[in-house]
């Protein structure tokens, strides 16, 4: 007798479930997505024990006809596509027709449903592929699915679950994303009999964001509205004050489906660069809409991954959507709203070609555009410059601000390959270096040269400094050089871009005036005027805020308390 057998359906479904259903949150995702596909405007999710023992999803969607109820639990049973070509135009969340079959194979599943044409609904209960109950029941139009004792027959999977609170967190996180993607649907999440999330579904994403993130985040968001070649990008991006240490708050939906995609993250990283500080990630919640045949979602059963047909197009659109929003938003009393299209194009070209643009005039004109009026009030603690702009007071951290300014200047010189941006020293310094430091210098001569250091190798382990970047600063040359070297050799960098970025940031940091240094009125003026011209003056390159803003309104409120 041969050794090959055909697997039975239950086994096949359990195996398929392994791919899609890893934890209770995946069940919630599949059920809620079905409710969304059914056109529900009201979805209630109730869970117990982090979803391990009980998950109930109730919707007011289309409902399921009696004949379809059992069929919907079969593998490859779907109402969403009919033939393979339909995969090219999928706008529904589901299409594989396997979620319910998978869930039913690893739990006790109850389905209650009624369409609006039916007078009375039906209930079915299934365990281990056996129909335990099938009868009529009075209920509202829509569908309720109850999933009990998930993984009861797959003990290995069950063992890998985390504590209830952690499993619940995954559920909540997913629900939050569903709410962000569907502001017109009213969502409620009930955990162990307590309502934990309630969104009214009034259609405004701002309301959803406010409920989920609170006032501080909402106040630091800017709306995105961008369209190019049939691709529409809407949502919000966060300013530098709310940039984060992780990618947790980088959320992206493609035709309302939450996806993770490296092309999008890379494009966003590049667009945010310089605005978030090194090592920080820009905050964004973006809804991308495009024709379904621009991409393939049938890559992985969880549908979190997509493959774009034209990756460079997507990269470019996301980059431009974010960049344009950042540059066109208001800042610090500046009400100019110029389309800095040319500037964006140059940055983008630099980025994708990695070549240095010849034209350095453009940078100068850009910097001359803004003239901001402010009243200088003084300096406190030898650290904070206080100015008044319109109805607001700004405390500007002199070190962080100077650092930001130098960073932009060095970067501009570097990008535009402006030679001779060195300030020659009357008496060159000769410095002895450690082996590791010497290696770094030798390997990165170009980097030093392009940022304005004029160096000469002077014997086996010595270096002669003829010139340093021509910037306005008061630090000692040798110190700047040594500090930069120290920083660069004590932290490994991976990519060339990282090394460049960190190098420029370090030069800026080490050369900037420190807290506690006395500045003259001219120095303050010079610093502020130049700072305010920058597109992103909010933080120093490391992400520390340069400026704290206090509105008149705030003071008035404060006064009334
Ligand atoms: N809440 C619901 N309201 C109305 N119909 C539903 C609901 N849930 C499931 N269905 C019906 O049951 C079918 C099977 O659902 P299932 O989730 O297994 O597959 P799918 O959504 O088509 O594809 P996928 O496996 O990609 O989710 C759906 O195609 C739909 O017709
Ligand atoms: Mg589904």
Strand order of the largest sheet: 5-4-3-6-2-1-7-8
CATH fold title of the largest domain: Heat Shock Protein 90
The fraction of residues assigned to DSSP E strands is 15-25%
DSSP strand tally = 22
Extract low-pLDDT stretches: 331-338, 354-370
Assign a percent range to the helix content.
Answer: 25-40%
Q: Supply the helix-strand structural class.
A: alpha+beta
Discrete helix count: 19
Span between termini? 89 Å
Total domain units: 3
Secondary-structure arrangement, i.e. CATH architecture of the largest domain: 2-Layer Sandwich
Describe this structure in words.
This protein is of the alpha+beta class and about 550 residues long. It folds into three domains: about 190 residues, Histidine kinase-like ATPase, C-terminal domain (Heat Shock Protein 90, 2-Layer Sandwich); about 120 residues, Ribosomal Protein S5, domain 2 (2-Layer Sandwich); about 190 residues, formyl-coa transferase, domain 3 (2-Layer Sandwich). About 5% of the residues have low confidence. The protein binds adenosine-5'-triphosphate and magnesium ion (MG). Adenosine-5'-triphosphate (ATP) binds next to helix 2 and helix 4.
Which SSEs are present, and which pair or pack?
Blueprint: H1 9-20, H2 24-37, E1 42-48, E2 54-59, H3 66-72, H4 99-105, E3 108-114, E4 121-127, E5 130-137, E6 142-148, H5 155-159, H6 164-181, E7 186-191, E8 194-199, H7 205-213, H8 215-219, E9 221-228, E10 231-238, E11 250-254, E12 257-258, H9 262-272, E13 284-289, E14 295-296, E15 307-308, H10 311-328, H11 341-353, H12 361-368, E16 375-380, E17 384-389, E18 392-397, H13 398-415, E19 422-432, H14 435-443, H15 445-451, E20 454-457, E21 462-469, H16 477-490, H17 496-511, H18 521-533, E22 547-551, H19 552-560
This protein binds adenosine-5'-triphosphate and magnesium ion.
Residues 30, 34-35, 38, 59, 61-64, 72, 77-80, 94-101, 143 line the site of adenosine-5'-triphosphate.
